[in-house]
TrEMBL record:
One of its GO terms (molecular function) is peptide transmembrane transporter activity. The lineage of its organism: Bacteria, Pseudomonadati, Pseudomonadota, Betaproteobacteria, Burkholderiales. Keywords: Signal. This is ABC transporter substrate-binding protein. One of its GO terms (cellular component) is outer membrane-bounded periplasmic space. It comes from Pollutimonas subterranea.
Amino acid sequence: MTDPIIPKTTRRSALKIMGVAGAAGLFAPYLLGKPAFAQTPPAAPSGRVIVGLSQEPTVFNPLMLKIEVDDGIHFSVFDALFRTMPDGSIVPNLATEVPSQENGGLSADGLQWRVKLRDDVKWHDGAPLTAEDVKFTLELIVDPNFRSWRTAGHNLVHDIAVVSPTELTWRMKEPFAPYLSFLTETFIVPKHVLEREADKNAAAFNQAPIGTGAFKWGSRVAGDHINLVANTSYHGEGPYIEQLVFKYIPDLTVLYTQFKSGDIDLVGRQYITPDNYAEAKTLKNRVVQLQPAPAVEQIYLNLERPVFKDLAVRQAIYAAIDKQSIIDALYYGLPEPVESYMPRGSIYYNKDLPKHEFSLENAVKLLDDAGWVKGRDGIRAKDGVRLAFTNSTTTGNHLREQMQQFVQQTLKEIGIEMTISNLPAAVIWGDFWTLSQFDSVVVGINYLVGADPDVFNRFHSGATRVKGGRGSNTAQYSNPRVDQLLEEGARSFDQARRIEIYKEIQATVRADLPFLPLFSENSVQGWKSDIKGVVSNSNTRSESWNAAGWSRKA
């Protein structure tokens, strides 16, 4: 890729818009290390908060392949250089400032970076955080022998130089506009612990991590819970609670029941199901609220499966899904139907995409015209391939399971056989997902990192892990035009042009249908009213992104 010719003034203004220049105003107290969210916090950590999760966190090295539920641990145990706030602004975390052209942290062409670190940060074992740890982290991510979660952007970093224990520089091979957002979710790991491990993928650290975060690793009972304890030497806000417990409750009905009974204090992913929302609002001593979610609920397809290679099949299945009835009957009308992966509140959101139309007649015509003919068993076939596939999701999610049954019955009417085969979260989101071993999956995905629109990791053909790529394109989607646009969007700092680029990507993806978008949820979040400081943040993937600021009465 080559650097496009962009006026220097355009780069500068775009960088400011994207938050590179720093943040102030609403979150200024947080930057000073004061409790911006917690109300009258205790002088010393006290009390415990039990977070109920429907999926079990299993990946504790924050740089490795993971799913969203693991982030609750990562945000609590580790810190990144920066973090994204609820309003989309980017503020310092381990760094003392956000690099900008004004403070000398970023060159005018976006290539040269300088990062200054706090001098009061210690690892949980007492060792000081230094620039060597940041350098080690950035180099580990792109180590070909390490199973990293994301390498896009990081693979452009070179010439990393440690200037002092609290300062380092690097140069980008080419401009990469999303990189600041990527760094908000790049948690720094300790060099002095991991460098002595021959195999970083199997390091003891991965099961008992050491970070700089507000909470230290305590203990884990596999299949039940993880206990974190307060880091009383934390450099930032809090912590104000003594213990943070993540409890695994795979059945969503049981998850809600335990919130209602008081056995858990705060409902994490997958939150309170819509069918329990009306009752939840009436519970005493509970805070229950709707929060627009950036994730899109969808039927995600493996495009290398013979049946899904035919666009007409994907179009027919989409036409045969009665989205509005699913939303109204199963989800009590709370979610909003969508056609894009882009969050509705983003300035990059394309509102002009074709609207889904439920029509079995159109679905039948698409299949007939494409040559899929019904056999004696009522299932269509073409060139020896039966129009049959398996659909999977996590066991215990009763609304998804009901939706699967609804879709299964409808598809059978038009000659498509969908077999339901659900799996525990730890199984489905392992190799089954990351190595594209599925036919189709019902899943909710947040495609963005922070507020940046980059989706290289999800849609670029080079991000297909099973084909030797480094990324999360598990649908094995490939479109040369999308590849071209993603590459241009990543190196452009012109926001107006980026809006055009990502709107075209959305239109192309909508036409190709590598996934069938259903709806974007309004998550029903709930916690006990004596817990203070809980703040929703649609720019992160964890309800506990600011658990350091939580407090409660002893």
